[in-house]
Amino acid sequence: MSREFQFDLTVRYYEVDAQGVVHHANYLKYLEIARIEQFRSAGYDYAEFERSGLMLVVNKIACKYHRPARFGDTLTIWLRTERARGARIDHVYEVKRGGELLAEATSTIACIDRDGRVQRIPEYLEIE
After folding, report:
1. Long-range contact list for 100-103, CB < 8 A, 24+ apart?
2. Residue 122 gets which letter from DSSP?
3. Quick one: residue 47, left, alpha or beta (phi over 0 = left, psi -120 to 50 = alpha)?
4. What distance in Å separates the CA atoms of residue 56 and residue 88, rounded to the nearest whole number?
5. Mean pLDDT of all residues in the chain?
6. CB-facing half-sphere around the CA of 127: CA atoms within 13 A
């Protein structure tokens, strides 16, 4: 899988609050979309991955907000897989509007089975 990935997303009306600013919780959704899109762009089907009995779940996530995004903005969501080995995947993210940094984040994703037991990630997902 590629170490870096990015895609564009347009802010939808239902993602903003009464002040017209993207609600902070939506950034976490944007990060999840980025992870799934990275998976898909590498030729993998996440639904099929889950049907195999494995799931990737958030173990830890942090987001620092710099500037607000608003309805209609086109955001570029960039992610870098820092490490994918053992049972975890570590990512860093940037959310930008044009060249302006709006938010940065980090996450640790764990691989588990349907019973919640920690599992090694498949070899095809590993990145040193």
Report:
1. 100/67, 101/66, 101/67, 102/65, 102/66, 102/67, 102/68, 102/69, 102/75, 103/27, 103/63, 103/64, 103/65, 103/66
2. P
3. alpha
4. 9
5. 96
6. 14
Query: What token pair was written down for 128?
Result: 């040193």
pTM for this predicted structure: 0.93
**Which residues are within 8 A (CB) of 72 and not within 5 positions of it... i.e. 6 or more apart?**
10, 11
Looking at residue 53, its amino acid is G
For the sheet containing 88-97, what is the strand order?
4-10, 74-85, 88-97, 100-113, 54-65
Residue 105's pLDDT band (boundaries 50, 70, 90)? very high
Residue-wise pLDDT for 35-80, tens only, equals 999 999 999 999 999 999 999 999 999 999 999 999 999 999 999 9
Side-chain-side CA neighbours of 97 within 13 Å: the count stands at 15
Residue 45: φ, ψ to 5°: -105, 115
Q: For residue 10, what are the contacts with CB-CB under 8 A and spacing of at least 6?
A: 72, 73, 74, 75
How would CATH label the architecture of 4-125?
Answer: Roll (3.10)
Q: Which residue type is seen at 60?
A: K
